[in-house]
Every structure is written in structure tokens, then in C-alpha cells.
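Page 37, continued from 36.
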């Protein structure tokens, strides 16, 4: 199978938008509420992890995966790099979404969350769920040699999808503080996943 150097895709990853601009949708699903407790991770640890993600990506060197696109033409990224790009984008979006939901749901807020934003938040939770699919595919692509790390990463993607489904309940109730708690849990799971990736071999 051909090896595609992930370092060649760094420029493309750097150009991805960090802002939270999900499309609007009128579809809201219902689900059992889960994981409402606050995350114990400190902001300093989150900052370190975010800064370390790009370094970890560069450390991968090459990623052995089937190439399903004409990368040389710049049409798209190879499988594996594309999944990593989406996960990195999701991780970058979450703090801004959490901040907006927290502020919009605060008592006496002058910028309350309107119907259009609630629809957009429903879309965003689907993006979080799909992030679990990207994590699953990335794991299967050979990102982890250590069986224990692989097992933990698999637990992370399953947990992320459960958390995403749990977000439907506060959205349907327009419960901003409840949704903020769910989003913080999703952020913590992604922190853990990227922490696992920091320790992978230089070439996989």
C-alpha cells in the first residue's frame, strides 16, 4: 500500500476554519440524558493539548493508508489525514460553542439562544457524533500499536457518540446549561484521545 506523507497536508489543515458555523436544521432528536457532571480537566491542560496536537500530527511522518483521492491535484486529503483534519476542527470548535451556550443560557443574558441557533446546535451535535466515526476509522487505520492505548481509544469513540446522543435531550428542552455540561464532556473525551495520540510511534 502506498505511503502518503502527512507532513505534506499540514498546510491544508492549517487553513481549516476554527469558527463555529454549523448549518441550520429543523430536526431535533430525543435521547436519554447522560454525563451531566462537569469535566475535571483544567484549562491549562486543555491549552497544552491543543498546542500539542499539531506537533503530534507532524511526528506521525507517514501514514500507511489506501489513497482514494488524487492528492497530487489538491482535490482532497488521503483517508486518515482527512479524518484527523475533521477531528482537529471539531476540537477547535468546541471551546467557542461551549462559551456561546454558557453565555446564552446565563440568567439575564442579553444574547439568548434563539430557535435558529438551537437548530444549529442540533447540527453541531451530529458533527460530534460523526467525530466518533472518524476516531473509529482512524484507530482501524493503524494509529495505535499498543493494545492498551488502542482499547482506551476505542472506549473514547464509543463514549463520544453516547455523549453526542445525550445532547439531544437538553437541545429539545432548550436547556443551555445542560447542553454546556454535555459539550464539556465531549471536549474531555477529545482531550483524552489526542493525549493518546501524542505517544504514538514516529512512523505508523
Amino acid at each position: 500500500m502506498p505511503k502518503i506523507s502527512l507532513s505534506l497536508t499540514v498546510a491544508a489543515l492549517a487553513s481549516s476554519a476554527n469558527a463555529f458555523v454549523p448549518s441550520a436544521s429543523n430536526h431535533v432528536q430525543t435521547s436519554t440524558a447522560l454525563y451531566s457532571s462537569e469535566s475535571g480537566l483544567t484549562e491549562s491542560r486543555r491549552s497544552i493539548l491543543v498546542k500539542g496536537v499539531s506537533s503530534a500530527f507532524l511526528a506521525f511522518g507517514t501514514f500507511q493508508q489506501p489513497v482514494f483521492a488524487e492528492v497530487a491535484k489538491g482535490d482532497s486529503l488521503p483517508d486518515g489525514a482527512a479524518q484527523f483534519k475533521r477531528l482537529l476542527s471539531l476540537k477547535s470548535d468546541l471551546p467557542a460553542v461551549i462559551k456561546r451556550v454558557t453565555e446564552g443560557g446565563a440568567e439575564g443574558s442579553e444574547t439568548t439562544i434563539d430557535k435558529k441557533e438551537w437548530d444549529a446546535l442540533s447540527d453541531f451535535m451530529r458533527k460530534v457524533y460523526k467525530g466518533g466515526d472518524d476516531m473509529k476509522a482512524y484507530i482501524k487505520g493503524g494509529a495505535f500499536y499498543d493494545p492498551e492505548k488502542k482499547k482506551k481509544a476505542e472506549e473514547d469513540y464509543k463514549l463520544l457518540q453516547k455523549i453526542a446522543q445525550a445532547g439531544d435531550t437538553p437541545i429539545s428542552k432548550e436547556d443551555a446549561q445542560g447542553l454546556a455540561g454535555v459539550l464539556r464532556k465531549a471536549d474531555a473525551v477529545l482531550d483524552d484521545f489526542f493525549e493518546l495520540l501524542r505517544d504514538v510511534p514516529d512512523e505508523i
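Confidence is low (pLDDT under 50) at residues 1-45, 47-75. Flag for discussion at group meeting. Residues 3-10+39-197 form one domain.
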